[in-house]
Amino acid sequence: MNLSFFIASRYFRSKKKRNFITVLSIISVVGVAVGTMALVIVMSVFNGLEDLIRGLFASFDAELKIEVAQGKSFETSEEWLDSIRNIEGVAVLTEVIEDNALLDYNGNQMVGTIKGVSDNFLDQERFSKGYFWGDTTLGTELNPAAILGRGVGFFLSVNLDNVNVPLRVYYPKAPRSAASLDPSQYYESAMLDPVAYFSIERQFDDEYVIAPLHFVRDLLRYGNRRTSLEVKMAEGASINEVQKKLIAHLGDAYTVKNADEQHAGIIRTVQMEKLFTFLTLTFILAIASFNIFFSLSMLAIEKKKDIAVLKAMGAPEKLIRWIFLKQGAMIAFSGAIIGLVLGYLVCWLQQAYGLVSLGISSAVVDAYPVKMAWSDFIWVSIAVIAITLLASSRPAYIASQVDTVKEV
């Protein structure tokens, strides 16, 4: 057995007397354990929130979204669309026309976003997350239907059971004559049957109305123009590979964004919050590790005679330093292992039983989402090792400088 490790372990396991140094060592272990557990739990919660956001957005947004680099819309043709469909990895291509419009239901009005989608939109497990009420249909050519965000439906006081009151949509158009006094010359209007609500995230719930592509195309007079194309991957296909193929096929005139890039702002915000929380809790853990510093400093004072004897027997200063460094490592690692295990158990219990509720009855999930990642455990361990070395280095150096002549 390594001599420095043997002596350090003897100091760590010593039970001869319960003095102040022993109590301080126990406090050090508890402090590191609590700090480590807090790091694991908080980082797992942020992982869960990030995963929940991605899941919610995936219920509404496409895996890949094609838009024009400059401008609002672009011309399409069947040959051009077929060339995209034939790219390896593309399973479904959804055509989209999206714009703001005035919504009117039984005299209640608001400006919302109407999103016209081709028939295959609902065949892609849309709205698999969140809540959905009503029929999963967009009607027929003669009787188009609409799926409303819950916020839109509540604001307009839409009653899905009342089939006699349609949702009227108004869209402005250029007047035929600048001097025209006929208000109908300034807008197009058409009617939809509201058949369902969806609730995913407030950004979508309070703005969007999903309608058939042909309805929005005729209302907005878009013809063959589209505002975006949404791509669903074939099973087993790599999103990154398909994205690269689409970028190469379409050129610089178009952008191809994956799910994270479509909502880069909010994803980046969650990741930054996770980073700063990690740094803050690591700083708190560093403060707690001062107990290790004081514990080793007191131990170095108490063991001066032992150190002097070791040095008189020929022990080099390096050996003395390693004894105290390993003593600090034992304190820190004991706390870290306890903290990692407790953090894992708390996160597992939250995943399995939802111990801590969000306290919001209308939330998509009832309890705080948690997702454990082994990379977090690794980073926490690295932080503990770094803090331990920092806290133990000074007491180890002081112990190695004990004067043999004075202490023996």
TrEMBL record:
Name by which UniProt lists this protein: FtsX-like permease family protein
Family designation: Belongs to the ABC-4 integral membrane protein family. LolC/E subfamily.
Keyword tags: Cell membrane, Membrane, Transmembrane, Transmembrane helix
Lineage of origin: Bacteria, Pseudomonadati, Bacteroidota, Cytophagia, Cytophagales
All residue ranges annotated as the MacB-like periplasmic core domain in the record: 25-152
Transmembrane segments annotated in the record for this chain: 20-46, 275-301, 322-346, 377-398
Bilayer topology: Multi-pass membrane protein
Entry's localization field: Cell membrane
